[in-house]
Amino acid sequence: MSNYYDFNSDNNSELSHYPIFSEGPASSPNPDKKPSKRNRNKKKTLAKRIGSLTLSAVLFGSVAAGSFQAVNHIYAANSPAAAANTSAGSTSDTKAGLLKTTAVSGGSGSNTGSLDVSDIAAAAMPSIVSITNKSVQEVQNYFSQFGYGGYPQTQETESQGSGIIIGKNDTELLIVTNNHVVENADTLSACFIDNNVLEAKVKGTDADNDLAVIAVPLDSISDETMSAIAVANIGDSDSLKVGEQVVAIGNALGYGQSVTTGIASAVNRALSGSSSEAGTDDSNAATYIQTDAAINPGNSGGALLNMNGEVIGINSAKLASTEVEGMGYAIPMSRASDIIENLMNKTTREKVAEGEQGSLGIKGADVTSEAEEIYGLPKGVYISDVTQGSAAEKAGITPGSVLTKFDGESVTAISQLQNLLQYYKAGETVEVTLQVPGQNNSYEEKTVSITLGSSTDTQNSQESNAPSPAGNNFR
């Protein structure tokens, strides 16, 4: 058996786990005998070797660890994420960087680039109202669809939209919205930020630009509601740049005020009649702000805001198609402001009882885009016949003329003219603008004053005369 020597104990009578290999034959250790000089040298040499190996291992480990840390530091310092954080001066973690983008200078708003628009929404919501339009419309009965005749039936319809409080006069609170929101309304109501609902009246409309102003009497507004609402701040839409963040607020789907945000996708965008041609350049067409902020039914007439909380547009339309997403349009305030000011100064009107409504005594038809192109007709209502003894005949209006304005408001369709006449009594005098045929197939503009007749008198006059050419009669 091999002999063992315990280096950790003075008692060498016990076996140890550290072997010592002798050159000679094995012998029992003698406790009184000291190790030879040669053995002592061997022990010293072995200890030196062990120490050298240990020191080498420590040095190698330290160098390797230092090199690893240096490589990590160099890579982190030169990575794209580190460069972005360094340039932004950001100390936030990765998740925070995903929620907010770096603020950039030169935008129209003080909060440019922030996805958090809660402050803007809180400041703007008191100036936004929800509008409900109730009207009664004629519909064909079920049997008339199969040729059995029958009388048309009436049914009440209701639609929702939005509006923006833009000011007040001595007696009224004034709200701007889209014309199509208030069109054909029998009754209008406005719901304010405190959920108080009040009746509103049409003050003025502009169908060509799809704008309208409605009014709520100040004496019907409580002190609590008056303290809760606010007049909107109007901004400069001309300074809006493509890519700037915008906020849309409105009565989406009639559920009440809601907020969406996005960017200005395009400015000065011209729209045509078909979705396939949307965005085509047309110097004569009205232009819009295009945004990818969600614009849904009920948002019409609501506000498009910049990041200063200023109204830069009036949400008007969206491009609806299965192939299209995120294309909403707003009327820029630079185009709307003058029109709104003109509408604000009009006389607020209420619908007149049917037996008291005024009449023109004409028959006519819409001038279609095809008629404009082929025959060179101006846009408006083509007058095909004038009733004998009617207000139109007394004012010198003749067949072949095109009616383009009624009491200062543009008229482009028969339905629009019929809607306007509902607010005027018989005996009122209004100005009517016409395009009268001239030489060489040209038209000359002419404005005449006309005193509206009674719808009953006009109807009796028509029944006593021979049948007139086909067309819609404006009593």
Automatic annotation (TrEMBL):
Residues 1-13 have a biased composition (Low complexity). It comes from the Bacteria. The keyword Cytoplasm does not apply. The keyword Phosphoprotein does not apply. Keywords: Hydrolase, Membrane, Protease, Transmembrane, Transmembrane helix. InterPro entries: Chloro_Bact_Ser_Proteases, PDZ, PDZ_6, PDZ_sf, Peptidase_S1_PA, Peptidase_S1_PA_chymotrypsin, Peptidase_S1C. Residues 35-45 have a biased composition (Basic residues). The chain crosses the membrane at residues 50-71. Pfam families: PDZ_6, Trypsin_2. Residues 349-438 form the PDZ domain. Residues 1-45, 451-475 are annotated as: Disordered. Belongs to the peptidase S1C family. This is Trypsin-like peptidase domain-containing protein.
